[in-house]
Amino acid sequence: MLKKHWLPLFLILDILLLAIIFYAYSSPEKLSANSHTSNPDNQESAMSKVLHFAGDVESRVALAAVNTVQFIADKWPGGKADHAMIDAPQIVQNPELPRGCEVTSLAMLLQQAGVNVGKMTLANKIDKVPYQSGDYYGNPNDGFVGNMETLSEPGLGVNHGPIVKLAKRYLPNQIVDLSGRPFDAVLDQLRAGIPVMVITNSQFKPLPDSAFRTWSTSSGTIKVTFHEHAVLVTGFDKKNYIYFNNPLGSKNEKTERDPFIDAWQQMGSQAISYTKY
User: How far apart are CA 48 and CA 259, in angstroms?
Assistant: First the structure.
């Protein structure tokens, strides 16, 4: 991981090694020179103390070296942590919100940030648009399309814009819209101990073209799928798995990372998180 950056690492280790040598050898000589007028017993006692001190310094410097190398491994480009796991609240959307995966995932995100708000409150407050009005279907970029609370009436879902708008009512200066950015931005949030809400699909892998349909809305045509789903991403590991709290499943479910990313990109690379103060 650090092979590309061996030169600065060896320079740092060389400096630390010189510090060990300086304390281990230079200090006893100085004390010995200042102790020529003392009796042999006192000189031996003083030298023992110095050697003990030098050994203690060496241990401290060695510990500092370990911490320095670990810091570089974590922070140096190409040396980021290869795993992370966050213990975030798990909330299920059913039975109250059979189409409420987005507001349920948002509730988990906000609760992890310390906001005491539930899925039903968010379901009531999010912007909504009719499923269909005349010749036009509702646009999920404007609000939740249709009915969230019952499958007996038509409904679809909502995209990141209205979700960010609602989230900022609770964390006005902290919400971060990561939509459109590479998935590395999601991983960086996880490394920082912050979960990320994403919009994906219920299969967590790319869908065939047949799973999408084109809708005419008042603001233009869009592609939609009834397999849309939202989850709260909570971690990743060295074995190429991604972990998430699933509103239709359980806490810290896992799936293969690459298909998950492909599905996320297929749904527009939509992701929402927050910053810590």
Answer: 63
